[in-house]
Each structure stands twice: as C-alpha cells, then as structure tokens.
Design a protein that fits this description.
mainly alpha, 4 helices, two-stranded antiparallel ribbon, 95 residues
Length: 95
Amino acid sequence: MIGAKQARFAQLEDRFFLPERKVELLMGEYEEFIGVIENRHWKKLTTPKPTFNELIVREFYANSYLVKRSDEKGRSSWVKGTQINYDRDTLREFF
C-alpha cells in the first residue's frame, strides 16, 4: 500500500495546482443563493484561503487515493502523521 501511495505522490508532482477563484457576490444580487449559503452554514466552504502549501495538498491526495474499491467506505487521509477524515458526516460537521 505504501508503494502505491508513493507512486501516486510522484504522479501528482508534475501537476499544476490552480487555486480556487474568489467570487464576490454583492448585496442585493443573488439573494436566494446567498441565503442558501448562509442557511447551510457554508461560509467556510465559500471563502477559500488566500494561500496553500502544495506539498501538503499533494500528500493529502496521495494518501487518500483508493487503491481498491473496497477501501471506499472510510474516507480518510494522512498528512504529516495526522489522520484527516473527510467522510460525509465529518464534512457536514465541519461546514
């Protein structure tokens, strides 16, 4: 399993990361859409960080790569020795 994740990390090294684009919605525009974001408490989700660490992003994706379909149930990854869960319930709680 470790060899597969190292190979996945190597594959990701050549990829260019495109940061998320910030879109600002003005008050009075798209009121219904803004209401959905606020009602679902998605402010964190819709406010991307201005910078990111590419190595950490690559490590996250390399360690979350599913080698077998049977591994799909528990969505988690490891970054710098810390387990990061990203299953539906964890994401719902975070956002």
